[in-house]
């Protein structure tokens, strides 16, 4: 991100106060010092650009070792940190991104202190460009290794959920709910919610694909967790700041107080979502992680801060809904094809709306077995799509996966009992546009095909997905 770095002492103090993240001594020296400090805030780097003996990697290893050695009465203890996630992490709703941002930020400060390395910034794992778990996370005796993983050093995350095309599609929506997951009345167990694409696609799938600790809510036990969430945070910065897409302006979102984290001294903190939106301005910055695009938006400092503090109203007004299926169960190896008859002008409206109108696939009330070794690929206008249809096929529209923990959230997803209804959305607009530009749209009928695809080398035969309602929706999103 680029911005003009001049701002007043008063503004700074407000920011620092809100974050609680900048020490007293830093600004007692006057604002030249604090501006300096902010201008040189640590850079979170791509692990692929770091040598195995880079001081950042060494510091991360030392920090993990130190946290594991702390008594379990210390809230900075390794298992205690993971327990915070198990007890509190919001998933499948709009607090997913800010909660994990705050979690990482305090964790980063703990690492910095325990490793005694002031320049430490948490590195990120960019699975789009490096689809295998990076080498620094492997090797017996290496504090960054976790022996519960279900994949090996040369296994690769599937481009269906981390590839350039799918990440580009996800970044191309201007809609907060579609990107960042939907409003809910509470971080856990509230009403509403629904997975946005960033969470459902790369996020969930990386968790389930790695499996072991990563497959459930104690996942922060695996050191790769933190670097996985760090690239998600970077992609939020890419979407929100570099591309200038607004977060929601809903006060209920900004006002959430998170009191479950501790700072580098093990002291409890109280941090709001309102403070997290400013963290990339005050506390850290990123080496760029998004797939190539035009130059990032140029911001005036004050303008950017105002933009982040206020957000914008999120529109997702469905104007037409077409039911595709109701109460249907599909199984690995048995693709589910369905067709929506669109009013002739609907598709045209979407294609010509310059992003104001979107064509969405909504999946409501999804139920999956407790153990899922598969994910779901979505194809448009390809009725005969199967697990063999490559994702390079122009009809491939996106995918979603599952990440949940029955122990952390009892009653959440055990089939046949009080199953919590998982909701997903796939924005079909970029794919429909590409198809139509290439002259490949049959229209006005649009086929939707869902294909349950097992993770590579995983036994998923017989696993099923039950959907309460599958719909095609046209929505005004701007
Ligand atoms: Cu709250 Cu990726 O986990």
Structure characterization notes:
By secondary structure, this protein is an alpha+beta fold. It folds into two domains: 9-310, Di-copper center containing domain from catechol oxidase (di-copper center containing domain from catechol oxidase), CATH 1.10.1280; 316-477, Jelly Rolls (Sandwich). The protein is 34% helix and 18% strand. It has 17 helices and 14 strands. The strands form five sheets. It has a four-stranded antiparallel β-sheet with strand order 7-14-9-12. The protein has a four-stranded antiparallel β-sheet with strand order 8-13-10-11. The chain has a two-stranded parallel ribbon with strand order 1-6. Helix 6 crosses helix 11 (224-242) and helix 10 (197-210) runs antiparallel to helix 11.
Tag the structure with descriptive keywords.
2 domains; binds CU-O-CU linkage; 4-stranded antiparallel β-sheet; di-copper center containing domain from catechol oxidase; 478 residues; alpha+beta; 17 helices; Jelly Rolls
Chain-wise SSE layout:
Layout: E1 2-3, H1 9-19, H2 24-28, H3 31-39, E2 43-44, H4 55-69, H5 78-88, H6 96-115, H7 159-162, H8 164-172, H9 176-180, H10 197-210, H11 224-242, H12 251-254, E3 257-258, E4 271-272, H13 273-276, H14 279-282, E5 285-286, E6 298-299, H15 301-310, E7 317-331, E8 336-341, H16 344-352, E9 357-367, E10 374-380, E11 396-400, E12 422-427, H17 429-437, E13 445-454, E14 464-476
Parallel strand pairs: 1-6, 2-5
Antiparallel strand pairs: 3-4, 7-14, 8-13, 9-12, 9-14, 10-11, 10-13
The protein binds CU-O-CU linkage (C2O).
CU-O-CU linkage binds at residues 85, 89, 91, 100, 203, 207, 219, 229.
